[in-house]
Design goal:
about 400 residues; mainly beta; Pectate Lyase C-like; 3 helices; 26 strands; Pectin_lyas_fold; Glyco_hydro_28; polygalacturonase activity; endo-polygalacturonase
Length: about 400
């Protein structure tokens, strides 16, 4: 997707991560310069009994993983032109150093929902691993259609069912996920949970815009993560960043359809949540129900701080810029509460395009804990309709506005 002329080339100033050795590890992986002192073991799932004809190959994958994990350096290969059916499976560590999973073919979820009864939240999970790379150009298909029909988001009463996440990485360090297509997740597509030093590159994530809760990339309790050159179109947030996450950078993201790029929700059930040091840069949002959003519940505590949204193009986006400290995702109205998650030090720079809503900028901040240090610079959001203009609604906030800002907070 071509970048609009109004969006400048991506800024090259990066978040300064504490562990610079992470980048050296990634460069060595990408260049194939891994240590030659240890022999590389190639593990092909077909050699462990996988058929690749769409039938259940879970047992073969389990055996292949055990062989790869026990080696000092290994590559687990999922061959191309094959479709491997899997029921829920966890690839656990710790393993030998420098473990690579190459997915060239297709991995497809079992549509038998009874297979998920042991843990209905997961399908594919990698956990407790260091120096892991998952790549290859293949496909991961969650077969989510049967789950969406029974989604509690659509029908919140029994017999609704919460669905599993397609691909979860938990407690992984020095992790690279690249060059994959993840489609039709049962619920969320890709989750990074309690991970440190992560690179997610060149991913394509797709699901119908009506599919419930199918977030593209969900980042929770994760530090030092870059998300780069990804195309995401789903029925929920393209990227969601929630509590415990810091040093998050997303660059060159094509988002839409979906609910935009969100920080939060934070503070639900009076929880203390914290998100800091986030950069969303050089990206395009098209036809989404929100643009870039910070959403917090009343009654919570903590903060969303040091956040930059810059060099963004909006194409027919509802609510292109939004802070909502009164977020309420439930049927009954949420009662007013004095406590709130503090939103502070948020910068919006060079954001241009068209808004599908009259309010192109909406800051609905807390009366008791107003938004602090909000900066708007070089904003030009026009109405998608040629006969209407855009407005800004700015409650309990006094943003600093420089350059041309349209619409303006008055």
């Amino acid at each position: 997707m071509a970048r609009p002329s109004s969006v400048r080339t991506a800024s090259r100033d990066r978040i300064s991560y504490n562990d610079s050795d992470f980048w050296r590890q990634l460069i060595r992986k990408q260049s194939g310069a891994a240590s030659s002192s240890t022999s590389l073991k190639m593990v092909n799932v077909n050699d462990y009994g996988a058929k690749g004809d769409g039938s259940d190959d879970t047992e073969a994958f389990t055996k292949a993983w055990e062989a790869a994990c026990s080696a000092q350096r290994a590559v687990l290969v999922v061959p191309q032109n094959k479709t491997y059916g899997l029921t829920p499976i966890t690839f656990s560590g710790p393993c030998g150093s420098d473990l690579t999973v190459k997915i060239y073919g297709t991995i497809e979820a079992s549509s038998d929902q009874s297979a998920y009864e042991k843990d209905p939240t997961l399908w594919l999970k990698f956990e407790n691993l260091t120096k892991l790379s998952v790549a290859g150009g293949g496909y991961i298909n969650g077969n989510g259609e049967t789950w969406w029909q029974k989604s509690c988001k659509r029908k919140p009463k029994p017999p609704c069912k919460h669905a599993p996440t397609a691909l979860t990485f938990q407690e992984c360090k020095y992790l690279r996920v690249a060059d994959l297509t993840i489609t039709n997740a049962q619920q969320m597509h890709l989750v990074f949970k309690k991970c440190v030093n992560v690179s997610a590159v060149n991913l394509q994530i797709t699901a119908p815009k009506e599919s419930p809760n199918t977030d593209g990339i969900h980042v929770t309790d994760t530090q030092n993560i870059t998300i780069d050159h990804c195309a995401i179109g789903t029925g929920d947030d393209c990227i969601s960043i929630v509590s415990g996450s810091s040093n998050v950078q997303a660059t060159d993201i094509a988002c839409g359809p979906g609910h935009g790029i969100s920080i939060g929700s934070l503070g639900a059930h009076m929880s203390a949540d914290y998100v800091s040091n986030v950069v969303i840069n050089n990206s395009r949002l098209s036809g989404t129900t929100n643009g870039v959003r910070i959403k917090t519940w009343q009654g919570g505590s903590g903060y969303a701080s040091n956040i930059r949204f810059e060099n963004l193009a909006m194409d027919n986006v509802t609510n292109p810029i939004i802070i909502d400290q009164n977020y309420c995702d439930q049927e009954k109205p949420c009662p007013p509460q004095a406590a709130a998650v503090q939103v502070r030090n948020v910068t919006y720079t060079n954001i241009r395009g068209t808004s599908a809503s009259e309010e192109a900028i909406k800051f609905d901040c807390s009366r008791n804990h107003p938004c602090e240090d909000i900066f708007l610079q070089d904003i030009n959001l026009r109405s998608e309709s040629s006969v209407k203009s855009t407005e800004a609604s700015c409650l309990y906030v006094r943003p600093t506005q420089t350059g041309i800002v349209s619409p303006r907070c008055d």
